[in-house]
Every structure is written in C-alpha cells, then in structure tokens.
User: What shape does this take?
Amino acid sequence: MITEDQVGEIQPQQFQLGEAFAYQLDQQDPLKALRSEFYIPSTAEGKEEYYFCGNSLGLQPKRTQDYINEVLTNWSQRGVKGHFQGDYPWLPYHEYLTEQMASLVGAKPCEVVMMNSLTVNLHLMMVTFFKPTAQRYKIVLEDHAFPSDHYAVTSQLDYHGISATEGVQLLTPKPGEELLDEVDILNLIESEGDSIALMLLPGVQYYTGQVLDLKAITEHAHRKGIIVGVDLAHAAGNIELQLHDWNVDFACWCSYKYLNSGPGSIAGCFIHERHVTNTQLKRFAGWWGHDKASRFAMMSQFQAIPTAEGWQLSNPPILSLAAIRASLDTFALAGGIKPLRKKSIKLTGYLVFLLSQLADAISIITPKHPVRRGCQLSLKCCVPHLTGKQLFEQLDLQAVTTDWREPNVIRVAPVPLYNSYYDVYQFVQILKSIVLKGTINHG
Ligand SMILES: *Cc1c(COP(=O)(O)O)cnc(C)c1O
Assistant: This one.
C-alpha cells in the first residue's frame, strides 16, 4: 500500500497554476519516457487526443504488434508444432504471464491464472465458493455494482433456487451520499453476518472511483465465516493490491482497462493459496485444469492442478495472451506498480488541484484521500443550463476523451503509464473554457 508518508511527499500545496508548471512536472517525471511506448489516438485532423479513458479501454503498447506477430509467425511456420517449438511455445504460454501478473496484484504465482473473461470467472468462482445453506445463503453486493456483477450474482442465486429479494444484500451509501461508508459495511457484517455466505466487493468502484479497505473488511468477514471475493476490473494495474496478505478468497479482473491488453482480452483470476491446494474443492472442470503430467494421457478422471491453474477449462487464446505479455513487459519498464502508483497519486492530485479553481462548476464525488481512490476522478457538472452529458460531448469535440456514465458522471482517468501532466493541464483549460462559455451564454 502507499503509506501516509508517501502521500505526504506530494501534498497539493506544492502545485502551481500555469502551463510552465505542467511542463516542469513532466520534465521532472522519472516515468515520462513510457508515453512513447504507446500509440496515442488522434483526431481526424491528426491532432493527438487528450485520452483519459484508460479506465474503460487502455491504450495499445507499441510492442503489442510484435508479440502478436511472433505468435502468428510461429503458427505460419510450424503449424501445430508451435505448441512445443519456437521462442514462446503455446502449451505453457499462460505461464509466461504468471509471475508479473501475480506481482501486480500482490499474489503468489500459484494463486493467479489468466483465463476466460471477467464475468465468466466471477461465475466460476461462485460455483466453487458460493455454497448456500438454509441459514447462510445471502450474497452482499453494492447497489451500484457494475450491471454484469448484478446479473452474475442474481443468476447464481436463482440457480440455487434463491430469489434476488431473499438472497441479495445490497450495500448502499447513506441517503444523499455517493460513497459507501466502511463503518456501515462492518456493521452489516456484525448484524447480518450469520446469514451471509459471500461478499462480492469492488477493488475500485467503477462509478465513484472509491477504494475500500479490503484488508479490514476481509478480516471482519472471515471472523463471521463469510467468503470474500473482489471484482478488480478498475483496480488491477491502477492501485497497489496485496491480495495474498489481505486474505481475500478470490478475485477477478479484466485485462483491457488499466492492463492495456486490447478489447475483450482475457481476464485474470486469483484464488488464495489456502484454497488452491485443496483439489477436492468443487468446480466446473476442463482439460486445461487437469494435472499437466497426465493431461495428454487423456484419462476421463479429472485431477486438478493444485494451483489457480486448476480452474482453467480450455486451452487459452494465445493471441490474447501475447497482448497481455506485451503489456506486462511495459509495466516492467516502469519498474512495476509501485513507481506507477506514486506518479499516479501525484498526477491525480494535480488534477484535483487544478479543478479546485472550478469548484462552483464541477464537483468531484471520488474520495478526497489518495489512499481511498485510484487514478480516476468522477466529476459532476453543476453549471446551470449545461448538463453533464453536454459537457462530456463538448469535451469530445475538443479532442478530450473521457467517459460518460449514467445517470450523472464524467469519469476522467489520468493513467501514469501514458498520460502527462500537460494532458491534465490541457484538460482543465478546455473544461474551463466550456464551463465559462456555458455560464456566459446563459447569464
Ligand atoms: C468492465 C467491468 C466488467 C466487464 O465485464 P466483462 O466480463 O469483462 O465484459 C465487469 N465488472 C466491472 C466492475 C467492470 O468494471
């Protein structure tokens, strides 16, 4: 985790307004060279965009094409023998990713595997870890969870004959508030814990950008015998995670957001060490999860690999794995997640500082404390006669790519791998001009 000390090093008072200061911050940035590792999208006129949408689709590392081409070449030259030959044979290809991916999420290599997609992995994990009984049958989910998580949870409950009304225990902010209060979550665990089988929590909440104290919540939940799963869609590659030490039971994440592995690229799955060695755990099985030594003996009796790999079903799409490998090597150039997170806190802190000039027009719903957020800020437009949606569209016309989330939020994610301080400066300049115009036009 980022300590309070590190946060203290980069307090907002050290920021200044003005373009020259943005350039200065970029000059002093030890990670500034990484931007050139990425393709930055441009407008029809050939102008580079200010891209703040890495929370939705991360940009393409330039090396990705080479890594994918390596697979294509191996295939064209060797056909089926590519499984066993070439610089990166396909049979163990997923293993090339494990160590780096595990380090990004704070896990041991035996706890991590890349497979399927995020929602599929959520289902597979619930097949293993959601074991409702007459007394303990509820799943805790935040009210504002991503729709796919709602659908996965309610369909799992339905599969066990439990209605959503009975089985879903929603976490909601206090009336009139946007953020979850951790004390409410701990209280819920105290009061309802005996009926809760599973909690599915966000690593970074996709709408507000809130980061929960997963360590404390997991500890409380475990004391009550509750399984804790985490959806890390917006956390992996964004914040520092210690999944192993926090004792989380399982976690799932996609690789196309902060992990820059391309649209629909395959997902990650974490299963804690204390579970993976239990090969008797019930699961939906496939041949790729079967003991490697005897996989090709083609026996009909399933024998699970005693690591997270034991949950794999099929041989994975190597082209997608190649893109993930390229992305992980880009993270390695940065020195891993720690230096990136350090820059991220400063970059987002700078954005908060610049936005404070527009406090009457733009409110930030994301938590104020850097430890309680990732790089994303969620903004609400409070200008009369200018809706949030209109503001979002105006930004887009001026080459600023953000994203719009119903009902009322513009999400802005300065990504430390490829966004510059100058990007952030320009974003606020453009935002300011739109907001001022909106105000002047309507008096
Ligand atoms: C992006 C996202 C998903 C997407 O699920 P896929 O299965 O990858 O399509 C799910 N949950 C959350 C919280 C997300 O942010």
